[in-house]
Amino acid sequence: MNKNGSAITMSKALKLYNGRSMGEMMLKTSLFSIGSYAATLLLFVLLGAVSSGGFEAARNDIGESMVSDSILVIDTAMINLILSQLTFEKHMPGGKFFRTVNGGFDTYRKASSAVCISRIVNIAVTAATAGLLHISGIMELKYGMASVITAIIFLVLAIGICNLISMIFNSTLSVFLSTAVFSVIGITAIIILRENGGRLGAVQLIAAAAAAVLVPVSQIMLMKVYKEKRWKS
What we know:
Elements: H1 10-18, H2 22-52, H3 55-64, H4 67-84, H5 104-136, H6 144-165, H7 171-195, H8 202-231
């Protein structure tokens, strides 16, 4: 077995575990997330149309009442919560044990990084889709592109926080805390948008800076802890 994983790309490393390359994972998870977002929007429009008596009125109400902004943040957060639980440990259903794969720990590290990057891309693509729907007038966001940018910033920040939580090797506790983080971060983003009247400001700037630092640092820390506590155990 080749223990040198330096020649293995992140995409190839990921494919060793789940049969999909990094590009395939990005595409499929993004399509799923966009579909979930669109389906939730459609459900709210249909429910609104039944109560208000018109499709157009319901669509306008959703845009003007910040419902569409909230759906963007919460729906995307929940999809990423699911992705945050992706693992390939032996004791998990359908999982491969990392130590049995070519490249050893370096392959594991690259596969984990590929998942992290794919999650960030998923957030960006879903938010960008919401932005395009807003610009085209198909489904407006009350706070427009400010909602798109805020959603990306805060949900990427949540990824960094959940990386830290993943160092807790108790799956039940980890899932509970990750759910709490995505929920709180999502609600916080919505509240900030509302309180600031949809303006981008210092809060978003600070959150963006924190996310830019926390995601790579937490990923490195997670790999170090996993190697010491689980890989060598």
